[in-house]
Amino acid sequence: MQAAKLICVGGARPNFMKLAPLVRLLRGDDRFQTLLVNTGQHYDDQMSGQFFRDLGMPEPDYQMEVGSGSHAVQTGEIMKRFETIVQNEQPRAVLVVGDVNSTIACALVAAKLHVPVVHVEAGLRSFDRSMPEEINRLVTDVLSDLFLVTEESGAFNLRTEGAAEEKIAMVGNLMIDSLFFHLKRAEESDIARRCGLQENQSFGLVTLHRPANVDDAMQLAGIMEALREISQDLPLLFPVHPRTRSRLSRENVGEGDCIRLLDPLGYIDFLGLMRRAAVVLTDSGGIQEETTALGIPCLTIRDNTERPITVEQGTNILAGTCKKSILAAWEQIGRQPKQGRIPPLWDGRAAERCRDAVWQMLEKHGVR
Ligand code: UD1
Against a cut of 0.90, is the pTM above it? Predict the structure, then answer.
């Protein structure tokens, strides 16, 4: 039997922890020949290389090194380079993850070359088309042949949009596979000490990078004012995303504020801090899921979430994006910390279910 060639694509920081457990499993399975493509949408070592090392990812078979650009430039550049790879490799399927520009670009290339597309994290919807990620999710799902779904809302949205039932597979959450796999190492990290924290000192952890939150100076100023007030009760650690770094001005964090700005952290160090944090304040998608899996209160600095299970079952609270709403949410969890539970199939075994669903799809497409 000839192994079925599968190209797995990653490109931006949040893709790598979802790909790692799946690529590890597929590389150990003779039925698959798994190629890894890194588009290079994120290129700083802190945003990309460090994650490959932390996650024990193999060297990519292709490094596309596309770098930054406007949405059209970045997406177009990824498409041009990925088309050549697909034409040369003739894979049986292309697997894309999440909702970044690399996801939509590679799904579009594969679909036009009649190569089946597998979408990890399919069906999530914020119903907010002003977010670039929502456009990426919608278009990728229109083009996909197999939907690997993390939570019930994803399957519901796909059905509502008319997706065929046999293409939907509820597999759980690959990101949580990585989290459980690396948790012990993360707990052993001395990152808290390196950040100047005392043993058992309480702190909050902040991340911010959504264009809607950080690209507008007034918007960012309001959020930072809320964080400054919160930091009077609880010191905050804030690893700063490159997009945010270029927008934060000196007025945003001043003398007397207990907010410590850090460079972006690797996967293990960030997980080590998140594990110990009293609360996480974030506008990330994935961190809403990780805090739910860890049972740590999360205030999401957004008005909506494409991951509603983290609010319905997990520890997540939508805090809005203005100073008043963020401080109200902060007071709310001070009065009554939100308890949660781990959603179904977020059990560290999603990679196995993804592998089985992909194999079934390949069999339907004539691979034996
Ligand atoms: C992208 C994703 C977003 C994801 C986020 C995680 C899209 C549309 N957005 O947003 O969904 O949550 O990654 O981080 O795909 N930069 C660097 N070094 C890097 C990468 C970027 O300095 O390694 C700077 C560049 O100046 C760039 C800016 O950060 O212009 C933004 O990067 P970009 O890749 O455009 O989008 P993100 O904001 O990172």
Answer: yes
